[in-house]
Amino acid sequence: MAINAIRxxxxxxxxxxxxxQPGSRAEGGERPSFSALVKDFVGxxxxxxxxxxxxIDQLVTGEAGDVHQVMVAVEEASIALDLMxxxxxxxxxxxxxxxxxxx
Length: 103
What we know:
By secondary structure, the protein is mostly helical. 64% of the residues lie in helices and 0% in strands.
């Protein structure tokens, strides 16, 4: 079963995901490490949270022209945070399963 790649709203593949495609390599010729991917993902989630807070501040001060854009920013940040928490939970479950294994 083939899994389609995740694309952004413009239909282009996210450059970080291109690095993970089979047979592809990063700029240095090596695949990015898992810790680097996690750091990037956490940074992206943090940035989305800041953007959502900024959009809310603009809405409160009357600078935001479109309430829909504010709601989209807030929901995008919320979904990204939920995804990050779910990934964390799955990693912890996997770690706990490894700890319970008998040698």
